[in-house]
Amino acid sequence: MFRVMIVGCGGIAPAHIEGYLHAEEGVHITHLADQNTERAKALIQKYELRDVVAIADYRDGLACVDVVSVCTPPGLHCEVAVAALESGCHVLLEKPMAPSLAACDAMIAAAEKQGRLLSVVAQSRYISSIRNVIDMVRSGEYGRSLYTRIHSVWYRGESYYHLDWRGRWEVEGGGCTLNHSIHHIDLLLWAKGMPSCVRAFMTNLSHHNSEEEDFSSAMLRYADGSVAEITSSLICHSEQQSLTFQMEKAGLAIPFQAFASRARENGFPETDEAQIAAAIADYESRPKLALENHDGQVQNFLRAITAREPLMVTAQDGRNSIELITGIYQSAIQEREVCFPIAQDSAYYTDAWRAHAPHFFEKTTEVAAFQDTTITSFKDKF
Q: According to the CATH classification, is domain 127-288+319-380 in 3.20.20.20?
């Protein structure tokens, strides 16, 4: 029986609670930790949790649990995760892993020293329609991936940044690139791996209560000569997410689409119906996951602890996303191409660069918490 503590009882905590409640493994949530214990008590009541303690300081529960889910703002991830790992707990971190590569490496080192599992949430890997397309891209059956386009486009109103910790470079860590596009950036890295270099631009188009960006655009170059494009924004009313992989033999997209062309004698295209039909049949033949989103990831995490199955999202996966995002910020700020890896002697390896990051606007309005904590679900996106 896994004894579980969830640290941080904001908008994402219910997804973790439900994940543990739906897991087929033996689980008992024993502690909910939040500086505002009323939020913890409200979740206990909402989910009718029994024998659960609401505590203000997570450290008071570490000796009593085996697994810790960290659902705090990103700037607190390292402190909580390292303390939990040093206490002998396995740790599941909400995305983003941490605001800096230095913090990522500190957590990885603590996990390795203690021999404990550290994983980072990437719930979009646990959506059947997404996973099956990524598997098709990685299979090699459609040739080399030549050009990938990521549209990680969201809508957030001005009030989104009224929350006191959002919109501050040195607290939240970044805007849409870090905290929203990380879902799609993880999928890009899962499909293609780390690029060699990035060239990026960012701005704030519409959120006047935030120092950070609400729009960025980046072009990536890979060692094999292929390229990728990432657009991140918080101004798109439709929130039409899309990932498109232009392969040698066909194009594959999420939400799922297949398209293929063959050249006529003069080089102009005609539709390759046979290749499209084959790709559609391939996609439709692939199995669906029994549990999706956070439910699927939580179950995989618990089973990986007991070595029943391999861990799908490793700490290194989480770090890779942070390295690419850091490179995007560095390129946008310095107005130059940035190549990977980012060296440990760089200011961009630590949080130091955020003290000098551009302030698109200054924070003028803030609240400690929202009464409405409902957030966007990936369940309706793909």
A: no
**Alpha carbon 333 to chain centroid, angstroms:** 23
Instruction: Please give the C-alpha separations between residue 91 and each of 108, 111, 203, 265, in angstroms, as whole numbers.
Output: 11, 9, 34, 58
**Domains of the chain, residue spans:** 2-124+292-313, 127-288+319-380
Contact 172, 179 (CB under 8 A): yes
Q: Give the Cα separation of 250 and 231 in Å (integer).
A: 22
**Rounded CA gap, 35 and 76, in Å?**
13
Query: Which residues, in sequence order, are CB contacts of 114 under 8 Å at separation 6+?
Result: 85, 86, 88
Decide if 173 contacts 354 (C-beta within 8 A): yes
pLDDT digits (tens, 9 = 90+) for 256-288: 999 999 999 999 999 999 999 999 999 999 999
N-to-C CA span, the chain: 34
CATH architecture of the domain with residue range 2-124+292-313: 3-Layer(aba) Sandwich (3.40)
- Cα separation of 242 and 205, whole Å? 21
Q: What is the pTM of this model?
A: 0.94
Q: Is the dihedral of CA 267, 273, 275, 279 positive or negative?
A: positive
Residue positions counted in the chain: 382
Q: What is the DSSP letter of 60?
A: G
Q: Which residues contact 267 (CB under 8 A, 6 or more apart)?
A: none
Q: Give residue-wise pLDDT tens across range 144-154.
A: 999 999 999 99
